[in-house]
Amino acid sequence: MIPALVIVLGLLVIALTILIVTLLATESRAMAAATPANGGSGRGDVTDVLKRIRALEIKVKHLVDEAFAGSYHSVFKGQGMNFEEVREYQPGDEIRSIDWNVTARLSQPYVKLFTEERELTLTLIVDLSASGNYGSARFSKREVAAEIAATLAFSAIRNNDRVALIIFTDEVELFISPGKGRSHVLRVIREVLYHEPRSRKTNIAAALGYLNRVIHRRSIAFLISDFHAGDCSRDLALTSRRHDLTAIQIRDPLEESLPRIGRVMLEDQESGELLEVNTSSQAVRSRFETQAKEHQEALEEQFLRNGIDHISLATDEDYLPPLRQFFETRERRMMRL
Protein backbone atom coordinates (compact mmCIF):
# COMPACT_ATOMS: atom_id res chain seq x y z
CA MET A 1 0.00 0.00 0.00
CA ILE A 2 2.79 2.39 0.99
CA PRO A 3 4.85 1.79 -2.19
CA ALA A 4 1.74 2.46 -4.28
CA LEU A 5 1.17 5.74 -2.38
CA VAL A 6 4.79 6.73 -2.96
CA ILE A 7 4.40 6.06 -6.67
CA VAL A 8 1.21 8.17 -6.84
CA LEU A 9 2.90 11.04 -4.98
CA GLY A 10 5.89 10.78 -7.28
CA LEU A 11 3.67 10.98 -10.34
CA LEU A 12 1.90 14.05 -8.89
CA VAL A 13 5.23 15.78 -8.29
CA ILE A 14 6.31 15.02 -11.87
CA ALA A 15 3.00 16.32 -13.25
CA LEU A 16 3.27 19.50 -11.18
CA THR A 17 6.84 20.05 -12.36
CA ILE A 18 5.79 19.65 -16.00
CA LEU A 19 2.92 22.13 -15.45
CA ILE A 20 5.24 24.73 -13.93
CA VAL A 21 7.78 24.34 -16.73
CA THR A 22 5.01 24.68 -19.32
CA LEU A 23 3.67 27.87 -17.71
CA LEU A 24 7.16 29.37 -17.52
CA ALA A 25 7.78 28.52 -21.16
CA THR A 26 4.49 30.14 -22.19
CA GLU A 27 5.37 33.27 -20.22
CA SER A 28 8.82 33.36 -21.81
CA ARG A 29 7.40 33.08 -25.33
CA ALA A 30 4.89 35.87 -24.68
CA MET A 31 7.58 38.21 -23.37
CA ALA A 32 9.98 37.23 -26.16
CA ALA A 33 7.36 38.37 -28.66
CA ALA A 34 7.57 41.78 -27.03
CA THR A 35 11.38 41.95 -27.30
CA PRO A 36 13.29 43.41 -30.26
CA ALA A 37 14.48 40.71 -32.65
CA ASN A 38 18.08 41.95 -32.48
CA GLY A 39 18.09 41.58 -28.69
CA GLY A 40 17.77 45.26 -27.88
CA SER A 41 17.43 48.80 -29.16
CA GLY A 42 20.28 50.59 -27.49
CA ARG A 43 18.24 51.21 -24.35
CA GLY A 44 19.27 48.19 -22.32
CA ASP A 45 19.75 44.46 -22.71
CA VAL A 46 16.99 41.91 -23.20
CA THR A 47 16.55 41.33 -19.47
CA ASP A 48 16.09 45.04 -18.79
CA VAL A 49 13.57 45.34 -21.63
CA LEU A 50 11.55 42.38 -20.36
CA LYS A 51 11.58 43.68 -16.80
CA ARG A 52 10.41 47.11 -17.86
CA ILE A 53 7.62 45.79 -20.06
CA ARG A 54 6.52 43.32 -17.39
CA ALA A 55 6.49 46.03 -14.69
CA LEU A 56 4.41 48.29 -16.95
CA GLU A 57 2.02 45.42 -17.71
CA ILE A 58 1.44 44.75 -14.00
CA LYS A 59 0.88 48.44 -13.27
CA VAL A 60 -1.60 49.18 -16.04
CA LYS A 61 -3.53 45.91 -15.71
CA HIS A 62 -4.12 46.82 -12.06
CA LEU A 63 -5.39 50.25 -13.14
CA VAL A 64 -7.64 48.70 -15.78
CA ASP A 65 -9.16 46.25 -13.27
CA GLU A 66 -9.52 48.77 -10.45
CA ALA A 67 -10.26 52.09 -12.14
CA PHE A 68 -11.75 51.35 -15.56
CA ALA A 69 -13.71 48.15 -14.98
CA GLY A 70 -16.78 48.50 -17.19
CA SER A 71 -16.04 52.12 -18.18
CA TYR A 72 -14.37 51.27 -21.49
CA HIS A 73 -17.21 48.91 -22.40
CA SER A 74 -19.83 51.50 -21.48
CA VAL A 75 -18.48 54.42 -23.48
CA PHE A 76 -17.38 52.61 -26.63
CA LYS A 77 -20.22 50.82 -28.35
CA GLY A 78 -20.17 48.19 -31.06
CA GLN A 79 -21.19 48.62 -34.68
CA GLY A 80 -24.73 47.33 -34.22
CA MET A 81 -26.94 44.63 -32.72
CA ASN A 82 -27.10 40.94 -33.52
CA PHE A 83 -30.31 38.93 -33.19
CA GLU A 84 -29.94 36.20 -30.54
CA GLU A 85 -33.31 34.55 -29.80
CA VAL A 86 -36.98 35.08 -28.95
CA ARG A 87 -38.60 34.53 -25.58
CA GLU A 88 -42.03 35.08 -24.02
CA TYR A 89 -42.99 38.65 -23.30
CA GLN A 90 -42.44 39.76 -19.69
CA PRO A 91 -43.86 42.86 -17.99
CA GLY A 92 -41.51 45.75 -18.60
CA ASP A 93 -40.28 44.57 -22.02
CA GLU A 94 -40.28 47.14 -24.81
CA ILE A 95 -43.40 46.92 -26.99
CA ARG A 96 -41.16 47.65 -29.98
CA SER A 97 -39.24 44.41 -29.39
CA ILE A 98 -42.31 42.17 -29.88
CA ASP A 99 -41.89 39.65 -32.69
CA TRP A 100 -45.36 39.83 -34.26
CA ASN A 101 -44.87 36.82 -36.55
CA VAL A 102 -44.00 34.48 -33.67
CA THR A 103 -46.69 36.07 -31.50
CA ALA A 104 -49.35 35.39 -34.15
CA ARG A 105 -48.16 31.81 -34.69
CA LEU A 106 -48.07 30.88 -30.97
CA SER A 107 -51.04 33.01 -29.86
CA GLN A 108 -49.05 34.69 -27.07
CA PRO A 109 -46.59 37.60 -27.12
CA TYR A 110 -42.91 36.94 -27.76
CA VAL A 111 -40.05 39.45 -27.92
CA LYS A 112 -36.81 39.50 -29.89
CA LEU A 113 -33.55 39.52 -27.94
CA PHE A 114 -30.44 41.18 -29.35
CA THR A 115 -26.82 41.31 -28.27
CA GLU A 116 -24.41 44.11 -29.05
CA GLU A 117 -21.97 43.45 -31.87
CA ARG A 118 -19.14 44.09 -29.47
CA GLU A 119 -15.92 43.59 -31.39
CA LEU A 120 -14.25 46.92 -32.07
CA THR A 121 -10.82 48.05 -33.19
CA LEU A 122 -8.84 50.38 -30.94
CA THR A 123 -6.24 52.27 -32.97
CA LEU A 124 -3.42 54.00 -31.11
CA ILE A 125 -1.73 56.76 -33.15
CA VAL A 126 1.42 57.64 -31.22
CA ASP A 127 3.73 60.57 -31.95
CA LEU A 128 7.40 59.58 -31.46
CA SER A 129 8.99 62.76 -32.79
CA ALA A 130 12.00 64.09 -30.86
CA SER A 131 10.01 66.52 -28.69
CA GLY A 132 8.46 63.50 -26.95
CA ASN A 133 11.82 62.61 -25.39
CA TYR A 134 11.67 65.71 -23.22
CA GLY A 135 10.53 65.59 -19.62
CA SER A 136 11.45 67.96 -16.81
CA ALA A 137 9.75 65.76 -14.21
CA ARG A 138 10.22 62.07 -13.40
CA PHE A 139 8.96 60.82 -16.76
CA SER A 140 9.42 61.94 -20.35
CA LYS A 141 6.42 62.57 -22.56
CA ARG A 142 7.21 59.36 -24.42
CA GLU A 143 7.11 57.31 -21.21
CA VAL A 144 3.74 58.81 -20.28
CA ALA A 145 2.51 58.03 -23.81
CA ALA A 146 3.58 54.40 -23.37
CA GLU A 147 1.65 54.05 -20.10
CA ILE A 148 -1.46 55.60 -21.62
CA ALA A 149 -1.20 53.35 -24.69
CA ALA A 150 -0.76 50.29 -22.48
CA THR A 151 -3.74 51.21 -20.30
CA LEU A 152 -6.01 51.67 -23.30
CA ALA A 153 -4.72 48.53 -25.02
CA PHE A 154 -5.33 46.29 -22.00
CA SER A 155 -8.79 47.85 -21.57
CA ALA A 156 -9.52 46.88 -25.18
CA ILE A 157 -8.41 43.25 -25.00
CA ARG A 158 -10.21 42.87 -21.67
CA ASN A 159 -13.36 43.55 -23.72
CA ASN A 160 -12.25 41.23 -26.54
CA ASP A 161 -11.58 44.14 -28.91
CA ARG A 162 -8.68 44.34 -31.35
CA VAL A 163 -5.74 46.75 -31.02
CA ALA A 164 -3.80 48.45 -33.82
CA LEU A 165 -0.80 50.78 -33.60
CA ILE A 166 0.44 53.59 -35.82
CA ILE A 167 3.79 55.16 -34.86
CA PHE A 168 4.64 58.38 -36.66
CA THR A 169 7.06 61.30 -36.84
CA ASP A 170 6.83 63.39 -40.00
CA GLU A 171 5.96 60.09 -41.69
CA VAL A 172 4.32 56.86 -40.61
CA GLU A 173 7.22 54.71 -39.37
CA LEU A 174 5.39 51.62 -38.15
CA PHE A 175 1.97 50.04 -38.48
CA ILE A 176 0.86 47.02 -36.47
CA SER A 177 -2.38 45.66 -37.87
CA PRO A 178 -5.31 44.96 -35.51
CA GLY A 179 -4.89 41.94 -33.28
CA LYS A 180 -5.94 40.45 -29.98
CA GLY A 181 -4.32 38.86 -26.97
CA ARG A 182 -1.66 39.59 -24.41
CA SER A 183 1.32 38.87 -26.69
CA HIS A 184 -0.03 41.32 -29.26
CA VAL A 185 -0.47 44.07 -26.66
CA LEU A 186 3.02 43.44 -25.25
CA ARG A 187 4.42 43.97 -28.75
CA VAL A 188 2.50 47.25 -29.03
CA ILE A 189 3.91 48.43 -25.68
CA ARG A 190 7.44 47.43 -26.65
CA GLU A 191 7.26 49.41 -29.89
CA VAL A 192 6.01 52.57 -28.17
CA LEU A 193 8.82 52.28 -25.61
CA TYR A 194 11.71 51.17 -27.81
CA HIS A 195 11.04 52.04 -31.44
CA GLU A 196 13.96 54.12 -32.78
CA PRO A 197 12.48 56.93 -34.91
CA ARG A 198 14.10 57.69 -38.25
CA SER A 199 13.04 61.33 -38.12
CA ARG A 200 12.91 64.00 -35.42
CA LYS A 201 10.00 66.03 -36.86
CA THR A 202 6.18 65.80 -36.66
CA ASN A 203 3.40 65.55 -39.23
CA ILE A 204 0.06 64.76 -37.62
CA ALA A 205 -1.82 65.18 -40.90
CA ALA A 206 0.21 62.37 -42.50
CA ALA A 207 -0.60 60.01 -39.61
CA LEU A 208 -4.33 60.75 -39.77
CA GLY A 209 -4.35 60.31 -43.53
CA TYR A 210 -2.68 56.92 -43.14
CA LEU A 211 -5.25 55.89 -40.51
CA ASN A 212 -8.09 56.72 -42.88
CA ARG A 213 -6.50 54.64 -45.65
CA VAL A 214 -5.67 51.45 -43.71
CA ILE A 215 -8.51 51.22 -41.16
CA HIS A 216 -11.67 51.03 -43.26
CA ARG A 217 -14.30 50.31 -40.62
CA ARG A 218 -15.08 52.89 -37.96
CA SER A 219 -12.70 52.42 -35.04
CA ILE A 220 -11.90 53.93 -31.66
CA ALA A 221 -8.86 56.11 -32.37
CA PHE A 222 -6.63 57.76 -29.78
CA LEU A 223 -4.14 60.31 -31.12
CA ILE A 224 -1.35 60.63 -28.52
CA SER A 225 0.97 63.60 -29.05
CA ASP A 226 2.28 66.82 -27.55
CA PHE A 227 0.79 68.54 -30.65
CA HIS A 228 3.87 70.64 -31.34
CA ALA A 229 3.03 70.64 -35.02
CA GLY A 230 1.46 72.73 -37.73
CA ASP A 231 -2.25 73.21 -38.31
CA CYS A 232 -4.07 69.96 -39.07
CA SER A 233 -7.69 71.11 -38.71
CA ARG A 234 -8.79 69.64 -42.04
CA ASP A 235 -7.41 66.19 -41.24
CA LEU A 236 -8.83 66.25 -37.72
CA ALA A 237 -12.26 67.08 -39.12
CA LEU A 238 -12.12 64.32 -41.75
CA THR A 239 -10.88 61.69 -39.27
CA SER A 240 -13.46 62.57 -36.62
CA ARG A 241 -16.20 61.86 -39.17
CA ARG A 242 -14.77 58.44 -40.04
CA HIS A 243 -13.62 57.31 -36.59
CA ASP A 244 -14.38 57.89 -32.92
CA LEU A 245 -11.35 60.14 -32.43
CA THR A 246 -9.97 61.32 -29.08
CA ALA A 247 -6.90 63.56 -28.75
CA ILE A 248 -4.58 62.90 -25.82
CA GLN A 249 -2.18 65.78 -25.35
CA ILE A 250 0.93 65.25 -23.22
CA ARG A 251 2.40 68.47 -21.86
CA ASP A 252 5.44 69.40 -19.79
CA PRO A 253 5.32 72.36 -17.35
CA LEU A 254 8.64 73.84 -18.53
CA GLU A 255 7.27 74.10 -22.07
CA GLU A 256 4.64 76.54 -20.81
CA SER A 257 6.42 78.57 -18.16
CA LEU A 258 10.13 79.43 -17.88
CA PRO A 259 11.82 79.43 -14.46
CA ARG A 260 13.94 82.43 -13.52
CA ILE A 261 17.44 80.93 -13.78
CA GLY A 262 19.40 83.49 -15.81
CA ARG A 263 20.76 82.99 -19.32
CA VAL A 264 20.17 79.50 -20.75
CA MET A 265 20.47 77.78 -24.11
CA LEU A 266 17.20 76.31 -25.37
CA GLU A 267 17.24 73.64 -28.07
CA ASP A 268 14.38 72.83 -30.39
CA GLN A 269 14.22 69.03 -30.10
CA GLU A 270 12.93 68.57 -33.63
CA SER A 271 14.99 71.08 -35.61
CA GLY A 272 18.10 71.15 -33.41
CA GLU A 273 18.03 74.97 -33.44
CA LEU A 274 19.71 76.62 -30.42
CA LEU A 275 18.50 79.85 -28.88
CA GLU A 276 20.00 81.78 -25.96
CA VAL A 277 17.31 83.11 -23.63
CA ASN A 278 17.60 85.44 -20.66
CA THR A 279 15.08 83.94 -18.24
CA SER A 280 15.81 86.70 -15.70
CA SER A 281 13.83 89.05 -17.94
CA GLN A 282 10.19 89.33 -16.94
CA ALA A 283 9.32 90.43 -20.47
CA VAL A 284 10.92 87.29 -21.94
CA ARG A 285 9.13 84.98 -19.53
CA SER A 286 5.79 86.71 -20.11
CA ARG A 287 6.16 86.52 -23.90
CA PHE A 288 7.03 82.82 -23.65
CA GLU A 289 3.97 82.11 -21.49
CA THR A 290 1.71 84.16 -23.78
CA GLN A 291 2.81 82.25 -26.88
CA ALA A 292 2.33 78.92 -25.10
CA LYS A 293 -1.15 79.96 -23.96
CA GLU A 294 -2.17 81.13 -27.43
CA HIS A 295 -0.99 77.84 -28.95
CA GLN A 296 -2.99 75.88 -26.37
CA GLU A 297 -6.15 77.93 -26.90
CA ALA A 298 -5.93 77.52 -30.68
CA LEU A 299 -5.46 73.77 -30.29
CA GLU A 300 -8.43 73.40 -27.95
CA GLU A 301 -10.55 75.45 -30.34
CA GLN A 302 -9.66 73.01 -33.14
CA PHE A 303 -10.81 70.06 -31.05
CA LEU A 304 -14.01 71.80 -29.98
CA ARG A 305 -14.88 72.88 -33.51
CA ASN A 306 -14.49 69.34 -34.82
CA GLY A 307 -16.30 67.63 -31.92
CA ILE A 308 -13.16 65.79 -30.78
CA ASP A 309 -12.76 64.79 -27.15
CA HIS A 310 -9.53 66.15 -25.66
CA ILE A 311 -7.57 64.82 -22.68
CA SER A 312 -4.71 66.95 -21.37
CA LEU A 313 -2.01 65.17 -19.35
CA ALA A 314 1.14 66.55 -17.71
CA THR A 315 4.45 64.78 -17.14
CA ASP A 316 4.56 65.99 -13.51
CA GLU A 317 1.04 64.81 -12.59
CA ASP A 318 -0.80 61.51 -12.22
CA TYR A 319 -2.55 60.71 -15.50
CA LEU A 320 -5.21 58.57 -13.80
CA PRO A 321 -7.62 61.38 -12.66
CA PRO A 322 -7.90 63.04 -16.11
CA LEU A 323 -8.34 59.65 -17.79
CA ARG A 324 -11.01 58.62 -15.30
CA GLN A 325 -12.76 61.97 -15.73
CA PHE A 326 -12.80 61.45 -19.50
CA PHE A 327 -14.58 58.10 -19.14
CA GLU A 328 -17.05 59.49 -16.58
CA THR A 329 -17.86 62.60 -18.63
CA ARG A 330 -18.34 60.60 -21.79
CA GLU A 331 -20.53 58.04 -20.04
CA ARG A 332 -22.80 60.80 -18.67
CA ARG A 333 -23.01 62.36 -22.11
CA MET A 334 -24.00 59.08 -23.71
CA MET A 335 -26.71 58.50 -21.11
CA ARG A 336 -28.32 61.80 -22.15
CA LEU A 337 -28.51 60.74 -25.81
Structural commentary:
This protein has 337 residues and is α/β, with parallel strands linked by helices. It folds into two domains: 81-116, no CATH class; 121-336, Rossmann fold (3-Layer(aba) Sandwich). The chain is 47% helix and 20% strand. It is built from ten helices and ten strands. The protein has helices spanning 2-33, 46-67, 71-75, 100-106, 141-158, 182-194, 204-214, 233-242, 282-305, 320-336, and strands at 81-88, 110-116, 121-127, 162-168, 172-179, 220-225, 244-251, 263-267, 274-278, 309-314. It has a six-stranded mixed sheet with strand order 5-4-3-6-7-10, with helices on both faces. Strands 1-2 form a two-stranded antiparallel sheet. Helix 8 (233-242) links the parallel strand 6 and strand 7 (244-251). The N and C termini lie far apart (72 Å). Residues 5-9, 11-28 and 37-43 have low confidence and may be disordered.
Helices and strands in order:
Elements (H helix, E strand, L loop, with lengths): L1 H32 L12 H22 L3 H5 L5 E8 L11 H7 L3 E7 L4 E7 L13 H18 L3 E7 L3 E8 L2 H13 L9 H11 L5 E6 L7 H10 L1 E8 L11 E5 L6 E5 L3 H24 L3 E6 L5 H17 L1
Parallel strand pairs: 3-4, 3-6, 6-7, 7-10
Antiparallel strand pairs: 1-2, 4-5, 8-9
Helix pairs in contact: 2-5, 5-6, 7-8
